[in-house]
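REQUEST
  id: r-88c1
  op: predict_structure
  target: Sodium-dependent nutrient amino acid transporter 1
  payload:
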Amino acid sequence: MMDGTDNPGFVTTDDGGLPAPQNGLTKPSPPLAPTGKPEKPPVEREKWDKGVEFLMSCIALSVGLGNVWKFPSTAFRNGGGAFVIPYLIVLLVVGRPIYYLEMMMGQFSSRGSVKVYDVSPIMRGIGIAQMVSICVVIVYYAATIATAIRFFVASFESPLPWASCDVSWTGFNCVNSSNTGPTPAFNNTLPVKTSAELYYTHSVTGEGLLSAGEFGAPDWKLTLCLLFIWVAMTVMMVKGIRGSGKVAYFLALFPYVVLISFAIYAFTLEGAGQGLKYFITPDWDQLLNADVWKEAVSQCFFSLSICFGGVIAFSSYNSFSNNIYRDAMIISWLDTFTSLLSGALVFSIIGHLGHLTNETDYTKVVKPGSGLTFITYPDALAKFEHVPNLFALLFFFMLLTLGVGSCTGLINSVMTALQDSTPRLKSWKTVVTIGVLGFALGLLFVTPSGSKMLDYFDYYGVQFVTLTSAIFELFAFCWLYGIRNLTRDIQFMLNRRTGFLWRFCWKLLTPAMLIVVLIIGLVKSQRPQGIDDVYHVLGWCIYVGALLPIPVWAWFAIRKRSESTLKKRIVAATKPLSDWGPESLEVRKRYLEFCSNYQPLESRWTRLRRVLHRNDKTYRVSV
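RESPONSE
  id: r-88c1
  status: 200
  body:
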């Protein structure tokens, strides 16, 4: 195993390859740039004013649209309870270990999602590949927020415009979503749809008005909403990390007030119990379904926002000794709770819709897809007897805050990566450029075909890309840099021993599971429906193109080395740069001293055995 201890700024000691100062002194030598000249001391990056701001920002990033919008639709598409068990397993085996690892690497190095691969320069292309996925997610998240704004504005109308059927919605037997009594009988064979679903497909997106083969132009109302959200996020991001930290208090806490209140009502709807049963009843046969596992891994990445770079970027603004273990546990458990609560809420409403339409096959009640949230929630809101407009305003404002929290966190990751590589880059220019490009690309997702395009880009540009980059990320951190160095750095930073389960997951279990899921997913995965074959070919080109920076950057990293043979250049390119480590020169000095005298902390069992052995010796001597 290569533990990264051949760092040019260190020499190897006799006790297992632990780094020590090169000149044998406690004061480190000036780090060398690739040119061989001493680097200037790094300018310390902006920090969170308080640790709680970091916690709230991570909650706003991780507990967002991925939980409330994407999780219910993914669970519904994969059979409800058939999806929940694999998802929970993936959260424990993949999600939490990677979340803690990314927090640790960001805080320890004070580097963003690309610069953090100074730990192994040959792998820096991973950060660039993840940036591609981040950009895709940011663009369609913003379009989803625009849809939430469209519903928010419509919620000022009384009665709610989706509460009753419109005469223009022909070709269906329409049931008023405000109806809480028996479903009326129809004398024809037309499909039964609720007014909430027809409002979304006909009045909001226009998807239901498209003829076969048509794409459609951007909806002008959604376009204005998209423009508004990009302007708002741009203004918010110009103030920097501290400005977003202040907003995070509201972005993190307000959604829970609305979500819990809404859930209490939804659970009382007639038929909700059947929907809940569908959500929590496991289908053990689905554990052998490759698609379910691939979707579970992808949803885990979305729910926790891991392998996108946002967690690393936020952690890089922490103080060096912040207790990230505590924060990682709080956020990961809260994320799981939010996903399950959102799923239970949506499936309660789906059960109620099934009751209204006399349909037990829930896939016939509503169409699976990214628009599920904008059908089930509005339908339930239309049934509120008291002030439904107020609850609708609160709910869609909650979706807005969730989306902004997730989106700004991902934008922060992009900004951090760009400013790490180009420190002279003006923050406001970066934000404005991202805003303009994001708005232009987002127009694709506010067309009548936007829902199909979202599923298409999510499949090829996000799911497989993040899954592949996650495998390379674990290889870089846990194999090239090495578990021993990781546990040493955690001990120095937190004075905490890393347990066996963490080390086992990081090095073996998590990457092995991801590799198996990726291979099976590539071979057997079902591609998005309703899209021409030529677009699927283009989709695989997007996948390959997104991952292309990994081999390209590896080639550049090897080429830059000056060693005599190719093998030596490759090995040298896997080692950390000379300035890898804590940002502060004073902390780095203590770090070098710690490395030269490093002794792993004892485990609880080792301490217990030592105490018992000592007591046993004392007893025998006394006897």
